[in-house]
Amino acid sequence: MKEKVVITIARQYGSGGRTVGEMLAKRLDIHYYDKELMKLASEDSGINESLFANTDEKLKNTNLFKIAHRVYHGELISPESDDFVSTQNLFNYQAKIIKELAEQESCVIVGRCADFILKDYDNVLSVFIHAPHEYCMEQAAKKHSMPSKELERFILKTDKHRADYYKYYTGREWTDARNYDLCLDSSKLGYNRCVEEIISYMNVRFK
């Protein structure tokens, strides 16, 4: 790709959004970023990578998101501050890495509110991959061997966490189509066609 283009992908659990992102990156021969962002943020900040991962897990089991919003504005907290390794600053450093990637290379970035962080960048295409609950259940069952009711609770909890996380840092609703350039139902298109549709949109938008 001659011009730098960044594709951000938000996705419901079981919709195959991560797979679509990986396939798209391979097709375009560009980097794919997901959990690697935590490693890059750790190297940039000097904060132990385990803190990034552990914070993600802890947030799933707290009521932090219900207390208030901490909409991201681009700031970083100084190492001298007691809040340097706070949840907010760990997010800030991941956002810093996401911005740097958008300025340096073409890539696919999954999750991490990347669409919001890069909302003012002209070279960004934001995508939301979704699918009906039954389809997500079928796909998730291929990866997890658990009773149907337990799997359903797992999917609902995962998507609720993603929605709460997104609302906390952006002030927006995760499933609101107005937040994205393109919303695709993977159950109707299949993963390959989702990739094709994203590329077609890119060709029209970025010529």
Question: How would you describe this structure to a colleague?
Answer:
This protein is an alpha/beta fold and 207 residues long. The chain has one domain (6-202): P-loop containing nucleotide triphosphate hydrolases (Rossmann fold, 3-Layer(aba) Sandwich). Helices cover 54% and strands 12% of the residues. It has helices at 17-28, 36-45, 49-59, 64-67, 87-104, 114-117, 133-141, 148-170, 186-206; strands at 6-11, 31-33, 107-110, 124-130, 182-185. It has a five-stranded parallel beta sheet, with helices on both faces. Helix 1 (17-28) runs parallel beside helix 9 (186-206) and helix 2 (36-45) packs across helix 5 (87-104). The longest helix has 23 residues, at 148-170. It is globular. The protein starts with 5 loop residues before the first strand and ends with a helix.
Averaged pLDDT, please?
88
Which secondary-structure class do the elements indicate? alpha/beta
Would you count the extended β strands for me? 5
Low-confidence stretches: none
Q: How many domains is the backbone divided into?
A: 1
SSE blueprint:
Layout: E1 6-11, H1 17-28, E2 31-33, H2 36-45, H3 49-59, H4 64-67, H5 87-104, E3 107-110, H6 114-117, E4 124-130, H7 133-141, H8 148-170, E5 182-185, H9 186-206
Parallel strand pairs: 1-3, 1-4, 2-3, 4-5
Helix pairs in contact: 1-9, 2-5, 7-8
